[in-house]
């Protein structure tokens, strides 16, 4: 990873005029959402949200083995919700903390 920090510009989005974000149809939105592409230099991108701290980390891996090792550590904390994305699929891993009523 490069160690670059990308600022969260939520205030700019909040303060923007409505005409800067035109309405689009659901089909156009879903078509755009399905057209992601990870650079060929990377295998996997993960977004890890911790429900307890509210912190979000984005991790990018060039090798699948490194991504797997990181994921095995991350799933040990049940507060982590992990979104894993490659060029073909998106997976969500999160803990189900609801009691079992069997």
Characterization of the model:
It is a single chain. By secondary structure, the protein is α+β, with helices and mostly antiparallel strands. The protein has one domain. The protein is built from 3 helices and 4 strands; from the N terminus they run ααββαββ. Strands 2-1-3-4 form a 4-stranded antiparallel sheet, covered by helices on one side. A hairpin with a 4-residue loop joins strand 3 and strand 4. The longest helix is centred in the C-terminal third of the chain and has 11 residues. The radius of gyration is 17 Å and the shape is globular.
Q: Keywords for this structure?
A:
102 residues, four-stranded antiparallel beta sheet, 25% helix, single chain, alpha+beta, globular, 23% strand, disordered C terminus, 3 helices
Write the layout of secondary structure elements.
Layout: H1 10-15, H2 26-33, E1 44-50, E2 56-61, H3 64-74, E3 80-85, E4 90-93
Antiparallel strand pairs: 1-2, 1-3, 3-4
Short description:
25% of the residues lie in helices and 23% in strands. The protein is of the alpha+beta class and 102 residues long.
């Amino acid at each position: 990873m490069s160690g670059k920090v990308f600022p969260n510009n939520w205030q700019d989005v909040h303060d923007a005029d409505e005409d800067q974000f035109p309405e689009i149809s659901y089909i156009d939105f879903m078509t755009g959402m399905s057209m992601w592409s990870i650079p060929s230099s990377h295998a996997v991108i993960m977004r890890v949200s911790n429900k307890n701290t509210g912190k979000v980390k984005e991790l990018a891996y060039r090798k699948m083995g490194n991504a797997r090792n990181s994921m095995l550590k991350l799933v040990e904390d049940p507060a982590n919700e992990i979104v894993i994305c490659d060029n073909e699929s998106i997976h969500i891993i999160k803990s189900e903390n609801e009691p079992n009523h069997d």
